[in-house]
Design goal:
14 helices, homodimer, 13 strands, Alkaline Phosphatase, subunit A, 2 domains, five-stranded antiparallel beta sheet, eight-stranded mixed beta sheet, alpha/beta
Amino acid sequence: MDIQDLLRQLHTEGTSKIVMPVADGLGGLPLEPGGKTELETASVPNLDKLAQQGVQGASIPVLPGITPGSGPGHLGLFGYDPLKYVIGRGALEATGVGIMLQPNEVAVRCNFCTLGADGKIADRRAGRIPTEESGPLAISLRDISIPGIELVVEPVKEHRFVVVVRGEGLGDNVSDTDPQATGRRPLDPVAGDEASEKTAEAAIEFLNQARRRLKDQPKANFLTMRGFAAKPDLPPYQDVYGLRAAAIASYPMYKGLARLVGMEIVGQATSLEEEIDALEQNWENYDFFFVHFKYTDSTGEDGNFDMKVKRIEELDAMIPRLTALKPDVLIVTGDHSTPAYVKSHSWHPVPVLLVSDRCRPDSCQEFSERQCVCGGLGQFEAKYLMSLALANADRLGKYGA
Amino acid sequence: MDIQDLLRQLHTEGTSKIVMPVADGLGGLPLEPGGKTELETASVPNLDKLAQQGVQGASIPVLPGITPGSGPGHLGLFGYDPLKYVIGRGALEATGVGIMLQPNEVAVRCNFCTLGADGKIADRRAGRIPTEESGPLAISLRDISIPGIELVVEPVKEHRFVVVVRGEGLGDNVSDTDPQATGRRPLDPVAGDEASEKTAEAAIEFLNQARRRLKDQPKANFLTMRGFAAKPDLPPYQDVYGLRAAAIASYPMYKGLARLVGMEIVGQATSLEEEIDALEQNWENYDFFFVHFKYTDSTGEDGNFDMKVKRIEELDAMIPRLTALKPDVLIVTGDHSTPAYVKSHSWHPVPVLLVSDRCRPDSCQEFSERQCVCGGLGQFEAKYLMSLALANADRLGKYGA
């Protein structure tokens, strides 16, 4: 029995509201020995005040030392064990460009590549072809026609694009065609089970037609297919937690991830301010609100420490609008760390700040990496955050008599 | 391999002694923002002194955010994974009134109910009939006779009583008869497997005879049956830990829980003072002593903050008698939190204080919720407390060469 099995049994009806603003990549590192992290450097008077009222902890996205991608990072936050629930690469890529996979579809991540005259791969990424060139090329593949199959082709970035194969009886157990090295021929897609044979056949036909269409291209004269994936089977929020959940996000990837767990997307915000507008406008209609703030992650990825500090301060400035709504439970956290120092996602635990009328206050005086590890929530796997949220919202019955 | 599998292999013989006084519902909450918990408010000079010598931690009874009943709360403390070992409702209710289930018995929790003239349930709790009326009614059902079956009927409180069905070949996979709503007929008990058919037949016969006996009662003219449960199969303390264990408790429920894991009940104490008398008198005969102190929980359930503080101070006053016995390991903790603020069990971690000659001291200066989360034991699931106890008692061999 895992935590979600337990919550499915124990959750109760209620009118309490939970708000979870997620600053993507919130956790950081000092740039220099003895220095402060981005969050510790930022002036966050509103968050510090909440830290004094509430309880802090450090969430471990997957397991100690494991750096998550955006998929596992958010699944963990949403309470789905990221080791149990895996979103296939194709499905995640489709989600990232705003495609909401349906049960009769299989998504594939495709890479343009360059074949030499011998038919062997000379460049696995087609010379990192720029998006301006690759986008129209991907779109030209929309003319490919396969009997009994509908196709969706969507450009992503540089050499990457997504193909979604739609039809009846399409399994997703199909092998990658990327041989993972230059000097080799692309592999054929091979079905790993009977249910996936039709998918493999469609992929072969797609590759054949694409080869003819692309053969005269100087860089992108072929493609490889990876990560065949159907819609992941995630039990919806309403069933597991008994919550009507709303997601407020600007980027397609996060809207998509939220939709996969059964949240409704509200608003069409393009900034944090508009996200809070959407929160206010939809306050009466939901029990749980996931509010995604992207720019703490992207500034971290850019290695821009000062700009990440500034983005954290922007988040802090919005806190009074959140507290004015008087949520029963307010949780400020991130999906993982993105220290400017490492310019990428990292495994470091993420500060969590939880405020409710029944949280047990700790000694923390500031919202920071240094303090959160001594906070009352301790260090815990992110997948337990939702049970803490529900408990603090008084939405759980007792386990056992 | 879980922790108990490991301990079963690693435990060694020894003469060291472990004492574990358990203050039921010990953990608390402040009544007001910025305030102190019950334990932090109490003057506990003896416990604070131990906190300076020993090591503290915060135990999570089941999983983060999960509030345990008394059964799972104690199983966790005793080292039994409360998600793996489940004590059925009938068995727990029987345990609570002092019935020690035997392997050939099935216990059922029964509720008196009121049927309308149409045979449908008008009140699932017989108007919350007072114990003075329901007790004699339950006892009158002892006259029911079923060939090949022995029956035990024991009043509990208000509409509740327990029936134990004794005989050969009685499985406990039988469905509840309570339809969980008024305006419906009680359901028939249905066997979920062949081994439970005899139990279901006995239950049907019991219900038929009870219906005739109760038919003229104004309130309690029938009953429902729930939580059919045989004796839970818990590996005994001696086997898992190599400990001769004694339980000292005033309330039947806790004596029963201790007996289920193979502890012997010593003494007939009705107060904490008498419990310590029993401990002193039996000191030579056991390796492990569970000493249960009920009143920190009941005052919490009553929402009586000041009285809970007082009860904690009573516990503190007894500490010198415990330390005078020079136990090798002394562990002061609770089975869960019962903050007066929420007037019920809660999920909040429970302070744990462990003193031994080989514990690694931490920086804690006081026994309190705020300090324990920064203690040397960290936050841990209660099921790991017994391995820490055995290790500190020098009763565990090395794992692997």
